[in-house]
Amino acid sequence: MKESRFIVFDVETPNRYNSRMSAIGISVVEGRKITESCFSYVNPEQPFDRFNTLLTGIDRRTVADAPTFPELWEKLEPLFSSGILVAHNAVFDMGVLKKCLRDYGIFWKTSAPYCCTVQMGRRLLPGMSHKLDSMCAYYGIGLDHHKADSDSSAAAEILIRYMEAGASVDSFVRQYML
User: pLDDT tens-digit profile of 40-94?
Assistant: First the structure.
């Protein structure tokens, strides 16, 4: 199969409900290189939990002038439709995306192709921790953890390392029901 286009993304959330985004980072991987990156804060239109603010550094003041998810989705949708979605612990990030689409009444499509770098790592490198910071330490990848742009870039670099080691990413692609 020809080289695919991968849309590696990471979201931060404002509270324990994980139904809205407060930030999103995206790194596009083509030809085993990051070819594009973008980042945005997102106004979740929900309150922030202290835990999430301490973890991410994002609070209501940070996102006061940020676009809401529907406003941002107009720009994100063409990008998200242009490749296979990838995230580190994809069930979390895909779940937040699904809840945002649902809560705002946005129909995108019924399912999306995705893969998870944690699941890939568990099969490709068994017997070690697959937490993002552990994988970055293993591969010597810089990380400012719980910052969506840094996390998406790090996950993209991990994906690239797996491909360079000969992993067939296609065998890890699943469909996420939206």
Answer: 999 999 999 999 999 999 999 999 999 999 999 999 999 999 999 999 999 999 9
How far apart, in whole angstroms, are the C-alpha atoms of residue 39 and residue 16?
22
Would residue 174 count as lying in a domain?
Answer: no
In a domain, 173, yes or no: no
β-pairing verdict for 111-116 and 174-177: antiparallel
Residue 63's nearest CA partner among 23, 97, 99 is: 23
Domain of residue 117, residue span: 6-168
CATH number at residue 125: 3.30.420.10
In a domain, 38, yes or no: yes
Task: Return the SS3 of 111.
Answer: strand
What whole-number distance in Å separates Cα of residue 50 and Cα of residue 43? Answer: 16
- Answer yes or no: is 79 within a domain: yes
Q: Report the 10 Å Cβ neighbour count for 57.
A: 13
Give the count of alpha carbons within 13 A of 7, CB side only: 19
